[in-house]
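User: These chains co-purify. Model them together.
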Amino acid sequence: MTVVLRTIAEARNWVGEQRRAGRTLGLVPTLGALHEGHASHFRRARATCDRVAISIFVNPLQFGAGEDYERYPRPFEADLRLAEKEGVDAVFAPDAKEMYPAASEIVVEPGRLGEVLCGASRPGHFRGVLTVVAKLLHILQPDRTFFGQKDAQQVVLIQRMVAELNFPVEIEVGPTIREPDGLALSSRNAYLSAAERAQASVLYRALRRAETLLASGERQASRLEQEMQAMIQAAPGAQLDYARVVDRRTLEPVTAVEGEALAAVAVRFGKTRLIDNLVLGLS
Amino acid sequence: MTVVLRTIAEARNWVGEQRRAGRTLGLVPTLGALHEGHASHFRRARATCDRVAISIFVNPLQFGAGEDYERYPRPFEADLRLAEKEGVDAVFAPDAKEMYPAASEIVVEPGRLGEVLCGASRPGHFRGVLTVVAKLLHILQPDRTFFGQKDAQQVVLIQRMVAELNFPVEIEVGPTIREPDGLALSSRNAYLSAAERAQASVLYRALRRAETLLASGERQASRLEQEMQAMIQAAPGAQLDYARVVDRRTLEPVTAVEGEALAAVAVRFGKTRLIDNLVLGLS
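Assistant: Joint model of the two components:
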């Protein structure tokens, strides 16, 4: 039986019970519209924690003006059924007023790392992400929290926040779950028209091309980027946001790939913005 | 016996022991150079918590260029004796490298409230304060934490941070402890020459003058401010930074005092900057 916690006070009570009983707690923060990518985190959380909580909260602070905050899918009943099926113990699903009773004066500021890649196209996005994750970690006080590699820049920033601000939590990063054609699972895939969906695998195909080129000896980041950009620009309906090869930890541009690097792409199809990435490694 | 914790790992171990034993923990964050103002917090913490930890850390992030970070007093042995005498259980005293192994990318940003009053003269100061307090709360995970009303703006900002970011901690604010002539206790009083020390009570006298004027029927904030400013400017060697009457919670300027307001002053004597405040109330 999955318990639904609508208020911060209810969440604190439930967390207090788990703590007093000496149980470890895993938290999977989500925006809802749950899919197999989320479910894979729920299962990893169950495997390592006595209790699993997830949060379902479409966080207004991480959406910019003109983005999809209003139309972001909110299929709460279906989400709850999935959570129950996967053995989630508690769903924290507050409304925006519960989380932000007034305009937030105090925020967690990501600095330079929040301004590159997706941060360049979405000003303030990572400030919103870090601020809400800080709130969720304080409310639910998990021992471990789970994020997906699909949101690579978010993962780097949350790891930095937890390390630099000394949050008492472990972070576990799960692999990207993909459709058969390689498209990374995302709640935003539901926005795609049939024609857009048919082209959307170009993100993954471009990333794999970079990987193949690297394996064949091409280490120049700019060459890998050009190849990815060209492939994406050739896909009907695809508008390139970025296709970059960067340092996996610092997200800074690299000249040549040495050891590991992160290939990351962002592409718009109409109003829908998709992202994907692959860790490139020289073996 | 007071245990000294030099590293974050040592602190986490000690905190873990207290938690596992089911003990409540009080934390008094300090910059060291402890005086009776600090000791009053230690005693309030002992009265309400099973164990009391204090931190002694001169936080570089809250000092601006040209401020007194280098010469800030660090009488660690005397501090430790005072902590022992007051029954403090643990002193967390990391060095700057332990707290900031690399330049901090991720910070807690105070917003508008960090830019007024002391924030106007000390850009970045409250960012540094909030960031280090967030770190200390995450490392020591206290049930309650104790601050002094002497640092009124700091108190407002920490209360806001704890409320807005949902830190699982209670904040207790202790009254300002004063010398017989009214000068608020501060580690920085040690910087004053004998002549400066003789004049330094002007901060408290100005605040009391505002209080007396209010009691006699003067509710115009600008009149109260002018009186305080004139008194401070008349004191030999005193350089006025600000003397303001503001809303106690929002720190915004008020036109007329209704209910409660905060009278706050900052004054320089040579290189030494002193602050003080009084909550003005209409009864």
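Chain B is about 40% helix and 20% strand.
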